[in-house]
Give the backbone structure.
Amino acid sequence: MSLKVYNSLKRQKEVFTPINPPYVGMYVCGPTVSGESHLGHARPYITFDVLYRYLMHLGYKVRYVRNLTDAGHFEEEGREAEDKISKKAVLEKLEPMELVQKYTRLYHWAMERLNNLPPAIEPTATGHITEQIEMIKKIIADGYAYETNGSVYFDVEKYNTDFSREGQPYGILSGRILEDQIESTRELDNQDEKRNKSDFALWKNAPPEHIMRWQSPWGEGFPGWHIECSAMSRKYLGDEFDIHGGGMDLQFPHHECEIAQSAVCNHKMMARYWMHNNMITINGKKMGKSYNNVIKLTELFSGEHPLLTQAYAPMTIRFFILQSHYRGTLDFSNEALQGSEKALKRLLEAHDWLAQQQGLGNDDAAATDPELNGKVDKLLNEFTEFMNDDINTAKVVANMFELVSVINAIKDKHLPAAALRKDIAAQLQQQMKLFVEDIFGLKNERADNNGKLDGVLQLLIDIRKDAKSRKDFVTSDKIRNELSALGVQLKDEKDGGMSYTVA
RNA sequence: AGCCGCGUGGCCGAGCGGAAAGGCAGGGGUCUGCAAAACCUUUUACGAUGGUUCGAAUCCAUCCGUGGCGUCCA
C-alpha cells in the first residue's frame, strides 16, 4: 500500500510518486522573522515535520528546505506603518539584522521545544538577493515583467494569456479565474505604476528612509514578496521538485505568484504535489496579527496571556495539533488544550511503561488470547494505513489510545501478560516506539538530571513504603502531599510498587 | 460583489452512501488506610427544510450560521 496525499493542485488525493526516487525534494514556506512565532505558525511546521519524518521512515532521502524571510516589507511587531519604523530604527540606530537575529533565535528555540527536526537547508532571503535579481532579469528579458520608477512588476495578464495555452493559467492552484479578479482588486500603494491591478511586485524601489536596501539594475531597493521562494526552491531543489507545502492562506496569492515566476524561468510547474494545512482558529477565527488574537509561542509556554488560564508545554501543543487532521481547521480553547494535556500524559505514561518491559508476551502461542492478539495486530497495522491516507494523524492517535487501554490492562494485571503472543507483544513495543517517538516526535519532557532526581525520589518512595507498612499514615501522607505540592505525583500500584510522574 | 470551504454530544475532533472513531469533561463501579492513577461501565451529537436512494452525517437543491482568500499575516 502506498502513500497518498491530497494535492491542492489537483484537488484530490493522489499516490505519491517522487520524481527521482529515492530522493524527495520538499519546500515549505517558513516564517517572516520580524516578529515572534505564534500558535498558528506552529501548525505547518509540525504538520510538515511529521510528513518529513514519515517520508524518511518510508525510506526516502528527503531534502527538506524551509526558508526564513528576512527581507522586504519589514516592520517589527507592535508598531505601525513601515516608514515610521524605518525612521525610528534609524533614530535608535537599530539594525534590521538585530531584529532578524533576535527573532530567528526565538523561532529556532521554539522549533526545538516543539521537537521539530531542523530542515536540511534553511535559506534566507537576504542571502539570496543575487539569485532573486537574476531571476527577475530573466523574467524581464522574456517579456513578462516591466520596470516603472525603479520597481519591477510581473505582467500577470501576459503570463495568463501565454501560459493558458500551455495548460498553466494564472490561478491554476487556487482555482481563480484572472478575468474575475481584475475587477475585484483593491487599491494598493503605487497602483498607478502597474499596468494592471493584478500585477505584483518582483522588486520594489526603496524610498530614502527605508533601511533594508540592495543595489540592483533598477536602483536601490528590495525584493518583492514572492520571488525568494521561487529563487531558493529552484537553487536547492531544481526546476521541478516533489512537494511544496505551507498554510492554506498562502495558496493565493503567494503560491500562485511563485508558480508564475518559476514557470517563466523554468517552463515547468515547479512542484508536483502542493500540500496546504488549514488554520488554527480561536473562537472560530484565524489566529493572525490583523485580528489581534495572537497567542505567541512564548506566551503559550509560559501561560502569560489574558486568554490563557495556564501554561501549556510544547509537547501538549504538538499533540493537540496531531489529534486533528491537518486539512481541517482546529479550534483553540483552554478546555481543548487541557484535554490534550491529560490525554498526552496518559499516552506517554503507558508508552514509557511498555518500553521498559522485557520479555513481554507468551512463547506458548496456543495459550494466548486470539481475540486480543488479533485486535492489537489490527490496530498496529492501521497506523501505516492511516498515515498513508493523507497523513491522518488523528486516526493514528485514536488507535494509540485503544492500545493504551490494552497496555494499562496488562500493567494493572486486569489482563494477564500471558494473553499476548510473544511476536505481537514485540510488534506492539516496536510500533509504538516508532510512531510515538520517531514519527510523531512526542517525548516526555521530564527534565534530564542524570538520574539524580530519580535517586532522591526512590529514597522518598522507600521511606513512604516503610511508613505505610508500619501504618504510619501521617508520615506516608506527608511525603505524598508535599511532593504533590512540588509537582511530583506518587502513584501506588497494584503489586505494592510505587511510581511517580513530574508535572 | 466574487472565488473556495466549513457547520458532528458540555468541549476538541475522526468518519464522507450501509448499525456515529478517539480524547477531555460528567455519572456509576472496581482497587486503595484515604486519595491519586489505572481499569470496567455509562448519559448526551450529525445547523434547517426539501430531494435522489432499498438505505444519507455522508450525494443534490435551497435557506440559516460561520470561516478563509481577495490586503502584511501560516
